[in-house]
Amino acid sequence: MGNEKLCVKPVRSGHELEEFIRMPWRIYKNDPFWVPPLHLERRMHLSKKNPYFAHANCRFWLAFVGDEVVGRISAQVDSLYLDRYQDATGFWGMLEAVDDPEIFQALFHTVEQWLAKMGMKRALGPFNLSINHECGLLIKGFDSPPSMMMGHAPRYYSSAIETLGYKKAKDLIAYSIKKEDGIVQKIQQILGAKKDTVQTRRLEKRMLERELDTIFAIFNDAWSQNWGFVPFTKEEYMDVGRTMSLLARPEFIRIAEIQEEPAGFMVVLPNLNEVISDLDGRLLPFGWARLFWRIRFHSFRTGRILLMGVRRKYQDSLIGAAVSLCLIRDVMKEVLNSSMSELELSWILEDNVAMRRIIEALGAEPYKIYRIYERGLGHW
Fold first, then answer.
1. Cβ neighbours of 45 (radius 10 Å)
2. pLDDT digits over 298-351, tens only?
3. Three-state DSSP class for 23?
4. Calpha distance 177→340 (Å, rounded)
């Protein structure tokens, strides 16, 4: 760093927020696998228009050496999480920094001090901004682009974080499954007599709010015992739903029913990263028109199973497995008739053994791993 002083400053102005958003362009300018996020989407994500901020207190910081921005980080205290777990855990995320241990130390020192002042006793991350957003640090799978709403990172981030005393809390796994003609038949053979017990149907777009209520009621029930789970609020899932309605085709959003009662769901979105990679984050002056044209007419090669859930009362049972398999089967039928040749299933908790066994039996392979780190804050 030479003789210039390193300092970490809070983001207080619109100009500083722009600096915060633009920081990744410096880190990844020579990385062929990084996909620049849409600048406007990042601004909205970090603005008060994001319904997450109705229940979370957040701070953002930039690291400077002289006048040069060399790093960024955020810290979050989520009241919904604290109400649920009562464990004085705060979060960090939005991490980007040049390869210098002093910069990482300064950024995390700032975050940990703020979290401790907020009464937190543990720091957990990265979350950008919550477990319901992009989360986890890429530690395996650097040699391919991320799928939409999944992260990318330089290889040196993990060692820099671990040097500061952070330990693994949980790993999140991204699986890849290739399109093949025999997969539907394979699922039918596994299902056996259970194949007629579960029916799936596509989303009814004209009844979008009702359908979203159904999907996220299942999600909040299905995931309620999962590690780190925080329920979506109505405002949050309606916000997610508006995005899904722009990107998703109804046949790729499936609701499973048992005797006409909703029992599970699956959401597959085309991999938006395929059509934004060359926009360099810009939508103006012609980006919006170009983006919507591409979403409508682009022959997507990849997609992502973004959300999936089976009601708790069916979990850890043969009928629950049948719900999962029927959803995968009927989505794969649609994939076989589409331009997609590969789906990412992400993310899946490392200890979700039942789901991992199901999808690995169908030929899915883990190809990226994202890590959540933790550290106690007792030293403050």
1. 18
2. 899 999 999 999 999 999 899 999 999 999 999 999 988 999 999 999 999 999
3. helix
4. 11
SS3 68: strand
Reference 87, options 219, 228, 232, 206; nearest CA is 228
- Three-state SS across 179-210? CCCCHHHHHHHHHHHHHHCCEEEECCHHHHHH
Nearest Cα to Cα of residue 305 among 332, 273, 326: 332
6-171 CATH: 3.40.630.30
What is the tens place of the pLDDT at every residue in 142-162?
A: 999 999 999 999 999 999 999
- Does the predicted TM-score (pTM) go above 0.90? yes
d(CA 257, CA 348) in angstroms, rounded, equals 23
CATH 3.40.630.30 given to domain 180-340: yes
Amino acid (1-letter code) at residue 27: I
Could you state, in order of their start, the residue ranges of all structural domains in the chain? 6-171, 180-340
Q: Which amino acid is at 245?
A: S
Cβ atoms of residues 231 and 224 within 8 Å: yes
Query: b/e map of 221-247 (b: 16 or more CB within 10 Å)?
Result: bbbeeeebbbbbbeebbbbbbeebeee
